[in-house]
Backbone:
């Protein structure tokens, strides 16, 4: 199960924007100056190793700052996930944690360390890490989220349920602006992100409720998450909703529903491969032939795949490019990009 | 940093009926042009003057960059991929091959 945080996507997407806003502070504060310098260097970095190294140098110099969690998140993303070096990431974060006194930075770095526990033994307890920060001040919604996601991965369902519900209640424009105001998101973008977070939290709450044996409330929470729905391509939410909901449906014997949800998630969802075994189980329960599973996958993909929307745009020489003409009878890759 | 990797895929599969169209979401023509020239990009690159709200977000539901879609020979979207990091080109290459 992926332990990708909802907030992480936002950090990766818009993290750089924060650097600009902080240039004023940078003139006086050495930590902010270093943070701005790292951000400037990040846009030039062209390998994961380089990016991870920049973060590691920053943490070695300033282990205990408001940016520790951000640097730890990037190290987990680049060193552990992309470079497949979770041990290396763990060693760095563990050494960093020893030098941290402030409750917030301890919490952030600990939470990132916990996400590594699939591959490394992490001598921390999710609940204890949460309690340590809660003793200093109430948690924000993003902090509740980190607790909920890690608790879900550790199958600590009561904890996961409590913190998903708390994150949901606290995710408002006001709390978001208070925490991430310097990113300068527009009201529309902010509303979209909050919708995404809320759908994400309800999905986790539902999955925790299901695993606690509260079947009916669980399915109500899944439906609520779906109704909030921020959709990705083909209507598969960019949250683990279909994964959770599909597995619950499978366990309840609702095979058609399970195939529908797990099929969409496996083929078009983020991190869909982890749902493939459950889809296979549902397919077999429906009387499918194991040998023909790959064929079933391919035909499901073709059935679910939507026709592409045509467009007409100009290239840099002023020539009109029409998708349907350029791609006629061809395999086409459509890339949305930002020149960097 | 992703385009040189896409360029390599383009050169590899072009003869088998594979095309790439890249849509610039930044609306920075000069920057895009210099990038394309500097990196020797030969696949099709277009501007999106209508803005994100129109095409990118409402039609294709792109929530971040870079996002890629693979379309089969019958005009159906068979795969989408968010991000473009080291190693991603292998996944995309396998998907392209399954469609060719």
Residues:
């Amino acid at each position: 199960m992926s332990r990708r945080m909802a907030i992480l996507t936002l950090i990766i997407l818009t993290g750089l924007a924060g650097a600009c806003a902080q240039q004023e502070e940078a003139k006086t504060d050495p930590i902010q100056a270093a943070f701005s310098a790292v951000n400037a260097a990040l846009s030039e970095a062209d390998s994961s190793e380089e990016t991870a190294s920049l973060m590691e140098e920053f943490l070695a110099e300033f282990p205990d700052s408001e940016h520790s969690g951000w640097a730890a998140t990037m190290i987990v993303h680049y060193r552990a996930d992309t470079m497949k070096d979770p041990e290396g990431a763990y060693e760095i974060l563990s050494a960093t944690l020893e030098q941290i006194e402030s409750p917030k930075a301890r919490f952030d770095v600990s939470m990132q360390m916990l996400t590594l526990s699939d591959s490394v033994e992490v001598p921390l307890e999710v609940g204890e890490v949460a309690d340590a920060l809660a003793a200093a001040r109430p948690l924000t919604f993003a902090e509740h989220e980190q607790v909920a996601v890690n608790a879900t991965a550790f199958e600590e369902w009561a904890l996961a349920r409590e913190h998903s519900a708390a994150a949901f209640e606290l995710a408002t424009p006001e709390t978001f602006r208070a925490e991430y105001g310097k990113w300068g998101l527009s009201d529309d973008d902010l509303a979209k992100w909050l919708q995404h977070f809320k759908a994400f939290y309800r999905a986790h709450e539902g999955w925790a409720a299901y695993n606690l044996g509260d079947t009916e409330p669980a399915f109500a929470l899944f439906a609520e998450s779906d109704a909030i729905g921020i959709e990705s391509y083909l209507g598969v939410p960019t949250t683990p909703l279909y994964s959770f909901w599909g597995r619950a449906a499978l366990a309840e014997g609702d095979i058609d529903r399970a195939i529908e949800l797990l099929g969409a998630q496996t083929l078009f969802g983020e991190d869909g491969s982890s749902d493939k075994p459950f889809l296979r189980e549902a397919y077999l329960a429906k009387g499918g032939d194991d040998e023909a599973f790959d064929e079933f996958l391919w035909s499901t993909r073709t059935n679910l795949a939507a026709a592409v929307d045509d467009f007409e745009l100009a290239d840099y020489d002023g020539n009109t490019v029409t998708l349907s003409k350029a791609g006629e009878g061809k395999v086409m890759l459509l890339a949305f990009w930002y020149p960097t | 940093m992703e385009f040189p990797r896409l360029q390599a895929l383009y050169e590899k599969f072009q003869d088998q009926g594979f095309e790439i169209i890249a849509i610039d979401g930044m609306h920075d023509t000069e920057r895009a042009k210099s990038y394309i020239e500097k990196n020797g990009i030969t696949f099709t690159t277009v501007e999106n003057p209508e803005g994100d709200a129109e095409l990118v977000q409402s039609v294709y539901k792109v929530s971040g960059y870079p996002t890629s879609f693979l379309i089969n020979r019958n005009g159906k979207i068979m795969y989408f991929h968010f991000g473009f990091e080291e190693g991603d080109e292998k996944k995309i290459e396998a998907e392209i091959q399954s469609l060719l």
